[in-house]
Design brief:
Strand order of the largest sheet: 1-2
Distance between the termini: 32 Å
Shape: elongated
Radius of gyration: 13 Å
Largest sheet: 2 strands, antiparallel
Number of strands: 2
Helix content: 25-40%
Structural class: mainly alpha
Order of helices and strands: HEEH
Length: 74
């Protein structure tokens, strides 16, 4: 969840996706296009990465980490 800790979240996403990939388990991010400030109410349902209104990536470090986690497949 967004707690103004994108780099920590990116590191976890990279580890998780990389580990799952090593076992042949595919991963997906359930992007519900919901964005709330770190201290906002309802932030427990905030899983958006791609802002569909502005067509921008809200958390580019997380997106990049997930791509990198599977970039070296054989």
């Amino acid at each position: 969840l967004n707690k103004n800790n994108e780099s920590t979240r990116a590191a976890w996403a990279k580890y998780y996706v990389s580990k799952a990939d090593s076992y042949g388990i595919p991963c997906v991010w359930w992007d519900n296009n919901y964005f709330v400030a770190a201290t906002g109410a309802g932030s427990s349902e905030s899983f958006g990465l791609l802002n569909r209104s502005s067509l921008s990536i809200e958390y580019p470090q997380i997106m990049q980490a997930m791509v990198e986690a599977t970039a070296n497949r054989g």
